[in-house]
Design brief:
It comes from Salvia divinorum. The protein is α/β, with parallel strands linked by helices. The protein has 2 domains: 2-39 and 118-365, 3-Layer(aba) Sandwich (Collagenase (Catalytic Domain)); 43-115, PGBD-like superfamily/PGBD (Muramoyl-pentapeptide Carboxypeptidase, domain 1), CATH 1.10.101.10. 27% of the residues lie in helices and 9% in strands. It has helices at 2-15, 60-69, 86-98, 109-115, 181-195, 271-283, 310-320, 351-365; strands at 23-25, 168-173, 201-204, 213-218, 236-238, 245-249, 253-255, 268-270. The chain has a 5-stranded mixed beta sheet, covered by helices on one side. A 3-stranded parallel beta sheet has the order 1-7-8. Helix 1 packs across helix 8 (351-365). It is globular and about 55 Å long. The protein binds zinc ion (2 copies). One zinc ion binds next to helix 6.
Length: 366
């Protein structure tokens, strides 16, 4: 039992590597021009325009790693040469299906334009079982809609959720981040989006290690096998129930006022938009191919998207049921939406999450 406790403590320590004082800006005009990058870590993929099966082109090896990261290439795939093989073609086709693009199997302009968008670090396809559109029949319809809407929400494998007896979930922030009241207030609003439509409630606690949901900003490799990549690229990731970890890339330029009306710098990312998406993962939702859904994986910089779409609401209510006070008419919160939309994310449901969850459970049993 002591060994279990020691292992658990070690895993806690390893997760806390590289905490950072994240870059928060009250508004877009407060981001200094000197730190605004020329582009994203994925911009180099633009040079692969026109590539298709059978060709060899420098940079395809990196693209294969990108597709493996997000679940489009199996974890056992290891041919990281610059050859465009049949596996990469299949990955491109599945990606195009998930993002509502023409399934050409080629790296055409619309596909590349999408690939370079900032996004959630969680995979779109988990453990080889498809989520999003590529894994769904088109026969899933909303039963209570006058217009038949194809549902594209998804869950993690085995549909993990928080148990029914735990309708109030606690959350806490990594103490090292020393977040301001403004930033904490953004999370209050982000949690409200989900509590408004479900029986779940969320309350902040200061005992970080005992909280159900543990939120932190980290830089680069932070001990969970999902390193962050600096400005843009992956923005954040979150783990499925009952792990409860939500990590943000501390090197992004996080904007807190939600106002992206004019001249947004390319690197500005709306914190609340990403928080709403990642909380969806914490509660058990995977990615959706519905572009208006909060659980759509990508978000452009300078975009705000904080309101749940019907697809999100149908998904979360399938897991938890509805809030008795929810009238089914969408958000009753005051949207701060000058130009409103778009978010991103994915879900590290990898070995670490499972091990971490099991260790947590073992410690609890001890
Ligand atoms: Zn992480
Ligand atoms: Zn995501």
């Amino acid at each position: 039992m002591k060994l279990v406790a020691v292992i658990f403590l070690f895993s806690l320590i390893s997760v806390d590597l590289n905490p950072v004082s994240a870059n928060f800006f009250p508004n877009i005009s407060s981001i200094p021009a000197s730190i605004i990058p020329n582009g994203s870590v994925w911009d180099a993929f633009g040079a692969l325009h026109g590539c298709r099966r059978g060709v060899k082109s420098q940079g395809l090896a990196s693209l294969k790693k990108y597709f493996q990261l997000f679940g489009y290439l199996n974890t056992s795939y290891d041919d990281f040469s610059d050859d465009f093989d049949e596996f990469l073609e299949s990955a491109v086709k599945n990606y195009q299906l998930n993002f509502n693009l023409n399934q050409t199997g080629e790296l055409d302009a619309p596909t590349l334009k999408h690939i370079v968008l900032p996004r959630c670090g969680n995979a779109d396809i988990v453990n080889g079982s498809s989520t999003m559109r590529s894994g769904k029949s088109s026969s899933a319809y909303s039963a209570n809609s006058t217009i038949h809407t194809v549902a594209h929400y998804s869950f993690f494998p085995n549909r993990p959720r928080w148990p029914a007896e735990k309708s109030q979930l606690t959350y806490a922030f990594a103490p090292e981040n020393q977040l301001s009241d403004v930033v904490r207030g953004i999370f209050v609003k982000a949690f409200e989006r989900w509590s408004e439509v479900t029986p779940l409630t969320f309350v902040e606690t200061t005992t970080f290690n005992r909280a159900d949901l543990r939120i932190g900003f980290f830089s680069g490799d932070h001990g969970d096998g999902e390193p962050f990549d600096g400005v843009l690229g992956t923005l954040a990731h979150a783990f499925s129930p009952p792990v409860g970890l939500l990590h943000f890339d501390g090197e992004e330029n996080w904007v807190t006022d939600g106002n992206f009306l004019n001249g947004s710098p390319m690197s500005a990312v709306d914190l609340e938009s990403v928080a709403v998406h990642e909380i969806g993962h914490l509660l058990g939702l995977g990615h959706s191919s519905v572009e208006d859904a909060i659980m759509y994986p990508t978000i452009s910089s300078g975009i705000r998207k904080v309101e749940l779409a019907n697809d999100d609401i149908m998904g979360i209510q399938e897991l938890y049921g509805s809030n008795p006070n929810y009238n089914g008419s969408g958000s009753t919160l005051n949207p701060l939406t000058p130009r409103g939309e778009r978010d991103t994310s994915g879900a590290p449901t990898h070995g670490f999450a499972l091990v971490f969850g099991l260790l947590s459970l073992l410690l609890f049993l001890v």
